[in-house]
Design brief:
- The protein is α/β, with parallel strands linked by helices.
- It has 3 domains: about 160 residues, 5'-nuclease (Rossmann fold, 3-Layer(aba) Sandwich), CATH 3.40.50; about 70 residues, Arc Repressor Mutant, subunit A, CATH 1.10.10; about 80 residues.
- It has 16 helices and 11 strands.
- Strands 3-2-1-4-5-6 form a 6-stranded parallel beta sheet, sandwiched between helices.
- Helix 6 links the parallel strand 5 and strand 6.
- Helix 4 runs parallel beside helix 5 and helix 12 crosses helix 13.
- The longest helix has 18 residues.
- The two termini are about 35 Å apart.
Length: about 350
């Protein structure tokens, strides 16, 4: 049994109601069972519906049904604006603000087939480390959003909501898992491991076998080859959040699929900052640029000498291994060409 209700913030976009309710039903008819379900399992702190003049029928219906929802009109900010994007932007801004204001709150997003909100859910989970659930319709599927939330509920499968939510909220850990979790959290704190890191580092430091299976049992998302952690499980992230300030810990590390991808990403970013490239190129100078990068370097990169990494990427070095000679191999030439392009960073 769940002894304590979690805090919840509900955000909904009236612009999308037409996609997740039948044409003959009112907004309140499909909202009432959702709100009743959420209120039975959570303590709802805030519940906002974002709207503009295009949604007069749904707004009137919500108001008439006296649902516990605060309506936010875009027109109150931008007179005579009827553009849908304004509603989306307001919801996204509030999601970030509320995520910081309520550090322990879960989020529920009620939208239809609008793929834009996948980015909102991704930011809440990856950067603010929130738990996010969403509701949608099979008639207007939203796979992008479903992929970025912890739980995605279909309106056509209301009979499964209670079971799925209970399963997710009440996941238990065994004594062996708790022991591994304790050691892992100490390691994460000691090495400041980012959310994307090689499992090999964890195995070496903790001297454990079957590390990938242990991490998966704790809800971690791994790469296809099971050599990288892409995202910590919710218990691990919750423990990390308790020791980190959410206002200063907004960075989300790139999701690498291999050790080589780490080297390529870091080296190419550094070479971009040294444009135009002139060879021979000083390796210490390259190292200084890497250190000035504001992003957290992956643990696997810190453990290797820069000259060793450059040789793995097929760069030719001088005998003293302190200069990069003019690139000749296909791989080195390709990386130098890549470095000439504009810097492209992950969204978060």
């Amino acid at each position: 049994m769940i002894t304590e209700k979690k805090e919840l913030i509900i955000l909904m976009d009236c612009e999308n109601f037409f996609a997740i309710k039948s044409s003959t039903s009112s907004a309140s008819e499909f909202l009432e069972p959702i709100l009743s379900f959420l209120n039975s399992r959570f303590t709802v702190n805030q519940s906002f519906a974002y709207t503009c003049n295009n949604n007069r029928r749904d707004v009137t219906d919500i108001a008439a049904a006296k649902l516990p929802i605060e309506l936010k009109h875009v027109e109150a900010l931008i007179p005579q604006n009827k553009l849908k994007n304004s509603v989306d932007i307001c919801l996204a801004m509030d999601a970030v603000r509320l995520g910081m204001q309520y550090p322990h709150a879960y989020f529920a997003i009620l939208v239809g087939g609008d793929k834009d909100f996948a980015a909102v859910a991704a930011y809440l989970r990856r950067c603010l480390h929130k738990h996010v659930i969403a509701f949608g319709s099979d008639e207007s599927p939203n796979p992008s959003l479903a992929q970025e939330v912890n739980l995605y509920f279909s309106l056509q499968s209301a009979h499964l909501w209670e079971h799925r939510l209970t399963q997710w909220l009440e996941r238990k850990t065994t004594p062996a898992q708790r022991s591994f979790l304790s050691k892992l959290l100490n390691l994460i704190d000691e090495l400041q491991l980012p959310s994307s890191c090689p499992i090999e580092v964890i195995e070496e430091q903790l001297d454990v076998k079957n590390c990938a299976a242990k991490l998966q049992a704790l809800g971690c998302t791994l790469s296809e080859n099971k050599r990288w952690v892409l995202r910590w499980g919710h218990k691990i992230q919750a423990s990390i959040d308790q020791t980190r300030d959410p206002f200063t810990n907004l960075h989300f590390s790139p999701q690498y699929s291999s050790e080589l991808d780490v080297y390529i990403d870091v080296i190419v970013r550094a070479l971009k900052r040294l444009q135009p490239l002139k060879f021979p190129l000083s390796i210490p100078a390259l190292g200084s640029v890497i250190k000035e990068d504001t992003r957290e370097l992956p643990a696997s990169f810190k453990k290797k000498k820069l000259s060793t990494i450059l040789r793995k990427l097929d760069f030719t070095l001088n005998k003293e291994r302190n200069m990069i000679l003019s690139p000749e191999t296909p791989n080195a030439l390709a990386l130098c060409e890549q470095a000439k392009r504009p810097i492209q960073s992950s969204l978060f």
